[in-house]
Amino acid sequence: MWPEEAADIEQSGRSLTELRAIGPFTASFIARWLKDRPDVPVPPPIRDGFITYAYARAVVAAHPEWAAAAKSDQQMHTDETDGSATIDEMAEAGRDLGRERIAITDHSRTLRITNGMDEARLAAQGERIDAVNARGAAPWVLKGIEMDVTPEGAGDMEPAALARLDLVLGAFHSKLRLRDDQTERYFRALANPDIQVLAHPRGRVYNFRPGLSCDWERVARRASETGTVLEIDAYPDRQDLDVERLRIVAAEGAWISIGTDAHSPGELAFLEIGIAAAILGGVPRERVLNLLSNLALAERVGLVRATKGANTNERGTTTMAGGKRERIDTTPGKSGGSRFVRREARGRFSTDQTSAGRSVAQDKRVKAKNTAPKGMKDRGD
Ligand SMILES: [Zn+2]
Asked: 53-346 belongs to which homologous superfamily?
């Protein structure tokens, strides 16, 4: 989580104690390791496939064409549930980092450990977000939620309440240690008409839980077909999806949303970990939600809702683009959407997607690496 490589700091003659959580004692160890590099063991699966913040920053810096992705952070929590700060404090910290749009995505009712919201609290939070946006200061704040999704693919909030939101994330928070293939479970979640983004899809946590196992090629293809966006959760301990699986997602044509899952203002900085993962995974910028304008994002969300058959009166209606309510035609192939959305409606959301030549050996390797160890406790996160 250090912003710079220790080696670079030492080389420029600065003190290693500039690094977070490093005092003189630990600094002396690091200095010794830099001089006489010890053997670095291959990480066990539960710690494998993570990149450092310093490396992520270097990757992003080397790809200026991705700079705009950092203007939008599409998952974060506030003190309404298990975050530490208010909407205002998160927005202010986001502005300092150059964010022009943030999505507030607090937890839904079932997740009691996080003080999850019911529909009334969600609506009240929406009014507070309206008030923040009415002041006109950056960033624009999206009304969102991180809704708990059962292994059967069901949410725990009224569809009408979700239809009023700008962005609905769904996430698994239970039975995350099952060892058998969960492809069908992913299919059920992706089919949920009220969800536009599947958040932290694997459910892995660094050195704690390796995450669910599935056939990522089929899951990514289904995501592409349903329009459901897969998230890169940039939280350093999650990095979910990781680079290896993002290569599959990129090949299968699914869309990506990048969010920090920050629970405090300081954690908003880690967005670059998610952007770097997208770059390293070969995700095309044209399929990254963060890079859409507010209006195009609203259209995209409306299109996903329409594609998945969500059809209350509220669907396709948005409060974005300056708070002005406007009706967007979300019928695939009809006019009213942007050129890009219409093109997508004819192509990506139609029936067949061809596989992009990923080897069976690769799939097997992914499955093997995804096997959970025994005897670890689950937690609500
Ligand atoms: Zn979550």
From this structure: Metal-dependent hydrolases (3.20.20.140)
